[in-house]
From TrEMBL:
Record key words, sorted: Cytoplasm, Isomerase, Porphyrin biosynthesis, Pyridoxal phosphate
Molecular function via GO: glutamate-1-semialdehyde 2,1-aminomutase activity; pyridoxal phosphate binding; transaminase activity
Stored InterPro entries: 4pyrrol_synth_GluAld_NH2Trfase, Aminotrans_3, Aminotrans_3_PPA_site, PyrdxlP-dep_Trfase, PyrdxlP-dep_Trfase_major, PyrdxlP-dep_Trfase_small
Name this polypeptide is given: Glutamate-1-semialdehyde 2,1-aminomutase
Family membership noted in the UniProt record: Belongs to the class-III pyridoxal-phosphate-dependent aminotransferase family. HemL subfamily.
Localization terms from the record: Cytoplasm
List of residues that carry N6-(pyridoxal phosphate)lysine: 274
UniProt keyword annotation of Membrane present: no
Substrates-to-products reaction catalysed: (S)-4-amino-5-oxopentanoate = 5-aminolevulinate
Co-factor requirement: pyridoxal 5'-phosphate
Pathway terms, separated by semicolons: Porphyrin-containing compound metabolism; protoporphyrin-IX biosynthesis; 5-aminolevulinate from L-glutamyl-tRNA(Glu): step 2/2
Length: 436
């Protein structure tokens, strides 16, 4: 079949999207899902198995979105599914402590040198919101430093120059955030030690914490120099400011100990989400005994949740994380992702295409420039036109990337080398069309 004759059957998804618009703003329950920056209506997915998802029109795709990161084992992992099903059979929620919560807590704390205690919540946003409150409660100060392009969920004070959906829609700060909140947030460029030092020196008496995605993965993949992150740690100590690593994406992804383990840096508070719940809604934050002693009911910082540590979610998290502890798990993830990335990169280089891929562990991102990018403002929005075309060509050929050029791709344990070779061949064909 000629390339330009390939047509994606999207009738059923289109109908469902029209229907959804009657019920949900923009037809969706999370903005980027609306496919606004790529072609066509969003795909309505009905099933996922291993590294593949199937839409309502029965098209199947090799999936590199993985529900935006949680599914490090792929879709419908057998052990995770069985654990969820056997747990559900005994009821879904009790609003009490459960043995399953203990089991997941122990598994994490026993295998993570960077936290002594953890508190489960129900989303990454909730984890970050609580971590900020904790930092403010401990220090008695109110300002928060964040970095341009880092996304920390839809926490009011952090929806200022944020990535993810805001970058996609070109409005980095949300409406509805009071000016007084914005004033409490100081936004710095990533990888810029001078800006960091100047700000901390000037405002140390008012700054409760610095929050960073140590692996910034919501505005492209803006890999930081390790020395910048080390400098950040030292400066926070120096100025009496708490350091929060937002590891909602990097946690359990770049290693079981996340970016803290990867870079060997001890933050004061770490937030988690995504993988920790094995595809169920879970977030968490953790720190030292001392830091966590400020949380209610031990301490004065209040934080609670009706469905916190929900047993079904705890079961899914446990069944997932347990598998990540298998020897060589992360090395395998990194090696298979490297193979995919290298193959595509070599092809692009041979063809003279103006692009490169960034990678850390099983996270990758396609940048439509050859320059290394470490800050949000280095991304040329014009590159998103290339992504838009690439996304369409990939869908036509059976590869699914998250519907925004600012989002990263995730390789799961269910992507075999054969799957990745197939995806790479499709990617090469799609790039030929994009750069034609
Ligand atoms: N922090 C980071 C680094 C994230 O990537 C996200 C979501 O993508 C969040 C926080 C918010 O997590 P959630 O979407 O579970 O609220």
């Amino acid at each position: 079949m000629e390339k330009n004759e390939i047509i994606l059957k999207r009738q059923r998804s289109a109908e469902l999207f029209e229907e959804a618009k009657q019920y949900f703003p923009g037809g969706v329950n999370s903005p980027v899902r609306a496919f606004k920056s790529v072609f066509g209506p969003p795909l309505f997915i009905k099933e996922g198995n291993g590294c593949r998802i199937t839409d309502e029109d029965d098209n199947t795709y090799i999936d590199f979105c993985g529900s935006w990161g949680p599914l490090i084992l792929g879709h419908n992992n057998e052990a995770v599914r069985e654990k969820i099903v056997s747990t559900v059979a005994r009821g879904t929620s009790f609003g009490t402590p459960t043995r399953l919560g203990n089991e997941l807590g122990k598994l994490i704390v026993d295998h993570n040198r960077f936290i002594d205690k953890i508190r489960f919540v129900s989303s990454g946003t909730e984890a970050v919101m609580s971590a900020i409150r904790l930092a403010r409660g401990i220090t008695g100060k109110s300002k928060v430093v964040k970095f341009e392009g880092c996304y920390h969920g839809h926490v009011d004070s952090l929806l200022v120059k944020a990535g993810s959906g805001l970058a996609t829609f070109g409005e980095s700060t949300s409406a509805g955030i009071p000016e007084s909140f914005v004033k409490e947030t100081l936004v710095l460029p990533l990888n810029d030690r001078k800006a960091l030092d100047d700000t901390l020196r000037a405002y140390a008496g008012e700054i409760a914490c610095v929050i960073v995605e140590p692996v910034p993965a919501n505005n492209g993949l803006l890999l930081q120099d390790a020395s910048f992150l080390e400098c950040l740690r030292l400066k926070c100590y120096k100025y009496g400011v708490l350091l929060i690593f937002d590891e909602v994406i990097s946690g359990f992804r770049v290693g079981f100990e996340g970016a803290a383990g990867y870079y060997g840096i001890q933050p004061d508070i770490i937030t988690y989400g995504k993988i920790i719940g094995g595809g169920m809604p879970v977030g968490a934050y953790g720190g030292s005994h001392e830091v966590m002693s400020h949380i209610s009911p031990d301490g004065p910082v209040y934080q609670a949740g009706t469905l916190s540590a929900n047993p079904v979610a705890m079961a899914a998290g446990y069944a997932t994380l347990q598998q990540l502890l298998a020897p060589g798990f992360y090395e395998g993830q990194e090696a298979r992702t490297r193979r995919l990335v290298d193959r595509i990169q070599h092809y692009a280089d041979r063809q003279g295409y103006d692009m490169h891929l960034e990678q850390i562990g099983s996270i990758f991102w396609i940048a439509f420039t050859r320059q290394r990018i470490t800050r949000a403002d280095q991304i040329d929005p014009a590159g998103m036109e290339y992504f838009k075309k690439l996304h369409r060509e990939l869908l036509l050929r059976g590869v699914y990337l998250g519907p925004s050029g600012y989002e990263v791709g995730f390789v799961s344990a269910a992507h075999t080398e054969a799957d990745l070779d197939q995806a790479a061949a499709i990617m090469e064909e799609a790039l030929d069309v994009v750069f034609a």
